[in-house]
Structure formats: C-alpha cells, structure tokens
User: Fold Pyridine nucleotide-disulfide oxidoreductase from Campylobacter curvus.
Amino acid sequence: MKYDIIVIGFGKAGKTLAAKAGALGKKVALIERSPQMYGGTCINIGCIPTKRLVTAAKEAQFVNNNVEGDYYTLSIQTKDKLITALRAKNLGMLKDNPNIDVIDGVGYFLDKNSVEILTADGSKCLIDGDTIVINTGSKEADAPFEVKSDIAYTSSEILNLKTLPKHLVIVGNGFIGLEFASMFAGFGSKVTIVGRGKFMKNEDDDVANSVKEALVAQGIEILEDCNISSLMGRGLNFSQGGMSKSIIADAFLLAMGRKAVTEGLNLDKVGVKIDEKGNIVVNEFLQTDTPNIYAVGDVRGGELFTYTSLDDFRIVFDKIFGKGERSTKNRAIHANTLFTQTPLAKVGLSQKEATALGKDIKILKLSMSAVPGAKVVNHDIGMLKAIVDNKSGEILGAAFHCIYAHEIINEVAIAMNFKANAGFFKNQIFTHPSISEALNDLFGQF
Ligand SMILES: Cc1cc2nc3c(=O)[nH]c(=O)nc-3n(C[C@H](O)[C@H](O)[C@H](O)COP(=O)(O)OP(=O)(O)OC[C@H]3O[C@@H](n4cnc5c(N)ncnc54)[C@H](O)[C@@H]3O)c2cc1C
Ligand SMILES: NC(=O)c1ccc[n+]([C@@H]2O[C@H](COP(=O)([O-])OP(=O)(O)OC[C@H]3O[C@@H](n4cnc5c(N)ncnc54)[C@H](O)[C@@H]3O)[C@@H](O)[C@H]2O)c1
Assistant:
C-alpha cells in the first residue's frame, strides 16, 4: 500500500498532521502500537489524567469520604472515564476520514520509504510512503540504582493504583515528582520526596522557596542532596550528608526524567542519527539527515510538552504544504507550568539566567497576600515575579507561583511576543476581582 504520509506513533504532532493532511485529500497511515494509547501520552498517561487528578485532589478536602465513598478511588474512576472518552474521540477524529488508515502494531523502517508493521497476532504488513514522520514519544528513564520491589511504579503505572498509599515516596523532584507529590498529598497520603540535589536548583531561590513552602504546608516532606543506592522491597536506601539512611513506604514513584523511544525503529538502516542523549537529531524544520523523514514531539528531545509537539506539527505542515517559513528557530515565546496545587508558571528568562547573560535588569515582585482576587478565591499563597530591562521596561521573563498561574502566564507570553513592556500591564484595564489585575501592581513597580 502506498501513502503520501506515514506517521509512526499517535502523538500530538502526528495525529494533528494526519488529520490536516487527510482533510487536504492526502493518503495518510498512522501506526500505533497500543489501542490503549490512541491519542498518545497526553490524553492517556500524561497531562489530562494528571491534571484531572490534581484538581480532584484539591476537591478532596471538601468531601466526606464516609458519605460519598473513598474519594481517591472515585477520582481514579472519573479519570478513567475521561481518558476512555478522549481516546475514542481521538480515534474517531482520524478513522472518520477515508483518506486516513489507523494501523495497529509496532512500526519500524525497512528503508527510507518503507515501514513494516508487526501486529499483535504476529503478522506483518508493509507500507510505503513519500514522507515519514516519527512521533514515538518518550518513556521513563531507567533508575541508575538497583530496584527490586513490586511497589515501585512509573508515573503511568501509579495512575492505575486503585487504593491510596498511606506513605508514598517519590524519587525525583522534577515536573512529575512534584505534581504527583502535590496530588497524592491532597488525597491524604503522607508523601516524601527524595531528590538528589538542592530543591529546584535551577530556579531562582525565592521562586524555589515559594514552591517549597507551599508543598511543606501541604504536609509533604522534602529530602535534598540524597544519593540513592537501592530500592529493595519496601525500603529505599540512600545516603544524605554522609549518613546512610532508609525509608520504608507503601508505594514508590520513580520519576527521574524521560528518554526518547527509538529502539527497534531501525534508524541506522535509514541514515537517521541519534545524539548522545538518545534523541533523534533534526534540523530546524524537524527533518532528520534523511530529508523525507521527520521527527516530532518528545522523540526529538528539547522541550517535552504537548504544546511544543503541537507546534512541531505546524512546522512540518508548513514545510510540506506551505512556504516552509516556520521553524524551531522562530517558535513563539511560550510558557510552561508545574501543576502543583498552587501552580508555578514561567516564561522567558529567570533572574539567574538574565544575570548570567549580563543583562541590566530590574526585579518586580508581589506577594499574593496583597491581591484581592486571591482572597476572593480563598487562595492567597505564593508570589509574582517579573524580570524587566532596567532602562526600557522590556519584559524579559516572569515566574508566577499562584492560583491560575497557568492561565495568566499566557497573557505575559503574548505580550512578550508583541514586545509590550512593563508600562502595558501597568495601564491595562483588567476585570475585577481577578488574578490578572495583580499585573497592574506588579508591573506598576517599574
Ligand atoms: C505524567 C506526565 C504528565 C505530563 N503533563 C504535561 C502537562 O501538563 N502539559 C504538557 O504540555 N505536557 C505534559 N507532559 C508531557 C507530554 O505528555 C508529552 O510531551 C507529549 O505527550 C509528547 O507527545 P508526543 O507527540 O511526543 O508523542 P506521544 O503522545 O508520547 O505519542 C507517542 C506514541 O507513539 C507510540 N509508539 C511508540 N513507538 C511506536 C512504534 N514503534 N510503532 C507504533 N507506535 C509507537 C506510543 O505508544 C505513543 O502512543 C506530561 C508527561 C507525563 C509523562
Ligand atoms: N506540567 C507539565 O508540563 C509536565 C508535567 C509532567 C511532565 N512533563 C514533561 O515530562 C518530562 C519528564 O518529567 P520528569 O519529572 O520525569 O523529569 P524532569 O527532568 O522534570 O525531572 C527529573 C528529576 O529527577 C531527578 N533525578 C534524576 N536522577 C535522580 C536520582 N538518581 N536520584 C534522585 N533524583 C534524580 C532530577 O534531579 C530531576 O529533578 C518533563 O521534563 C516535562 O517536560 C511536563
């Protein structure tokens, strides 16, 4: 069978490209190895289930478990219903178009225009394509220490835990570690985070401290500078400050980063290179060294977010069907958010980064306790921080640790794309009472 485009993996970029190309009348094949992963990581084991559960965990404090049933178990069921519906919707979005074939099985290259698919029953089929897009995502990095425990979970596995662990120990204090810590603590688990360095060492100290205080206020124990030697049965063994220690727990979450899924693709057969970290090497148009083969989403390394995968779709679509003007070099300024109960959202440079670049900066800060809108929604934890050019007021970066941070940071990102400066926010008329209106006071300090 011959296709215009073959996509390997049902990720954000690939499924969007398949849908748009199919709508243009192109013949498209999308290969997915597991029907449980139709729609990819985001909707099945990533953003959507985790953010649904972070929200449910916030509600947990208002629920009487004796009356309503165990809220954690109910929340897992609600999450399962949600992702099942999204999976069906994602499949329908492609299958309803006769130009698109969704093929179940594991895809791998035979040559630069041919992909073989190994299906669950052991049979194989061969398809050919002019353009081939690798969108195989990432998976949990292996632990660099011995793990012999049947209560050690990856983030995907722990999302299916039916009963709430009394004590959860989380290894890793990155995005996944902190979000799951905040989530499980909200549901009522005792949570201990075991990190190998200083807590959020890449962040500005005031920002890291604000997040730390909020997590500690949730009852979370944070251990820093730990060197883990093994996880055996119910015990995690590590050294801290020269002392050997161990913690006994009911469940362990291992969240030490993610790595690109490339094994078995036969990349060496088709001249596609991977770098020292295991990511596929691409140019600014996401083309590999074999120009008809693209790599999009987590598998190309760099930023591992659903919205950067979506932007990869825009770049590849523009390269194939448009003017080829979009590239990773001209991606719009965009934010990211750590979804703890009080989220931390950031855009642009931190104070540390701006200082390291030798910028002449002014720091603007506002405590959320001074924001009426935060009082109204009964969540005045945290702070707003902006880094601006000392002379022009150009906004260089912002870090918001506050309720709705994941929403208001987008206002700043858009403003930065339009080169608006501090004066713009100082004088903007916002609805009242709101969190956005705090930007009047924050940027009014310039
Ligand atoms: C717990 C967690 C929470 C997250 N939260 C957020 C968040 O809040 N916001 C955010 O922006 N990002 C979040 N992310 C990151 C985000 O989910 C990923 O960056 C994004 O989903 C990556 O999508 P992708 O396009 O790379 O492909 P994926 O969605 O990962 O899809 C890859 C697909 O390829 C399939 N596949 C792999 N190999 C083959 C093969 N050989 N043949 C056929 N199929 C194959 C896989 O089964 C999978 O379905 C989170 C990630 C995790 C793990
Ligand atoms: N809200 C979001 O957008 C969101 C949420 C979850 C995940 N993600 C994406 O998924 C990616 C993966 O998340 P992640 O949390 O696994 O990775 P991460 O890179 O964010 O954090 C990994 C953490 O593990 C720690 N670590 C590594 N080895 C260790 C060891 N031996 N002992 C103790 N700690 C160790 C690191 O110090 C780091 O803090 C993120 O980088 C992000 O791009 C995004």
About this structure: The two ends are 63 Å apart (CA to CA). The pocket of flavin-adenine dinucleotide (ligand 1) is lined by residues 8-13, 31-34, 37, 40-42, 46-47, 50-51, 106-108, 135-137, 155, 176, 261, 265, 297-299, 304-307, 309, 339 (CB under 6 Å). The chain is about 30% helix and 25% strand.
